[in-house]
Amino acid sequence: MAESWETKARQILNQTRSQIKEAASGNSDAWFKINRYVYARLLGDERKKKPKKVDLFDKQKGLCWICKERIENIKDTDTHRINEELGYDDVNNVVLVHRSCHQRIQAKQT
Predict the structure, then answer these.
(1) Computed from CA positions of residues 40, 44, 47, 53, in that sequence, does the dihedral angle turn out positive or negative?
(2) By CB atoms within 10 Å of each CB, which of 18, 20, 60, 96 scores lowest?
């Protein structure tokens, strides 16, 4: 029987953890920096998949998905996943919102 994707993923994760530990040579600061670097790069790979803000702006006709008010500066916006479990790569699951609207939603979820 073939290994599941989850089993393979755990093996890769365990190997990576071992390599980070070995590379840090017992130095906790080095371990933290290496771990953070690897994590950020993997997360960045996933985030590159998400739709571009300008495309979402055009699709939404320049309006915030939450408050429906005009977005004046695209730099003051965040992308929001409608369903957190689906991720950023489904264009129908990602919307553009004012940063302040996004912060209000996130505060309610905690």
Answers:
(1) positive
(2) 18
Helix (H) or strand (E) holding 9: helix 5-24
Contact 34, 72 (CB under 8 A): no
| Region for residue 92 given its phi and psi (left: phi exceeds 0; alpha: psi -120 to 50; beta: otherwise) | alpha
**Rounded Cα distance, 80 and 53, in Å:** 11
Mean pLDDT of 98-105: 94
Secondary structure letter of residue 51 according to DSSP? P
Q: Is 81 exposed, middle or buried (0-12, 13-18, 19+ CB in 10 A)?
A: middle
Distance CA 61, CA 103 (A): 22
- Rounded CA-CA distance 53/96 in Å is 7
- 43-93 residue pLDDT tens: 776 556 556 888 899 999 999 999 999 999 998 999 999 988 887 777 789
